[in-house]
Design goal:
Elements: H1 3-11, E1 23-32, E2 35-49, E3 57-64, E4 67-74, E5 80-87, E6 89-90, E7 110-111, E8 116-118, E9 124-126, H2 133-138
Antiparallel strand pairs: 1-2, 1-5, 2-3, 3-4, 6-7, 8-9
């Protein structure tokens, strides 16, 4: 292992929770004159580059006042204070560049979270497996 790889390994932050399609909230440090503040950029991750390496980056897209805004963040930048995953979406592509052409409800992604319903005895089952009240009334 050469010197560059050792330094990169020490500085590498663990961002395994970032996946394409996730809705994330990125807290970025902004320096204005002699003041420093934290600005939040919330949107959908539409692409990842070099995810395993120290030099990786990810692209976050949001729509602000009807205008699409994309921002590229380096994974291990010192200006990134933290990254929160707001929602995990179910996708089938590595890059979601097609979202650039879509607006409104067409730009929605399928939610990846499985809804679960707790039964009377406390057991947890899928919502699809539970019979509805209309089915029970018909019997």
């Amino acid at each position: 292992m050469n010197l560059l790889q050792k330094i990169e390994k020490e500085q590498n932050k663990n961002h395994n929770e970032i996946r394409t399609g996730n809705s994330v909230r990125v807290h970025v440090k902004i320096v204005e004159g002699d003041k420093e503040r934290v600005q939040v950029f919330e949107g959908v991750v539409i692409g990842l580059r070099r995810q395993g390496s120290n030099r990786g980056s990810f692209i976050v897209r949001k729509v602000s006042y009807g205008v699409g805004v994309e921002r590229i963040f380096p994974l291990n930048a010192p200006s990134i204070e933290k990254i929160e995953v707001v929602n995990k979406n179910k996708i089938r592509r590595a890059r979601l560049y097609y979202l650039r052409k879509r607006f409104g409800k067409n730009a929605r992604l399928r939610d990846g979270n499985v809804r679960q319903v707790a039964g009377v005895d406390g057991a947890v089952a899928d919502a699809a497996a539970q019979p509805s009240t209309a089915d029970q009334a018909a019997q």
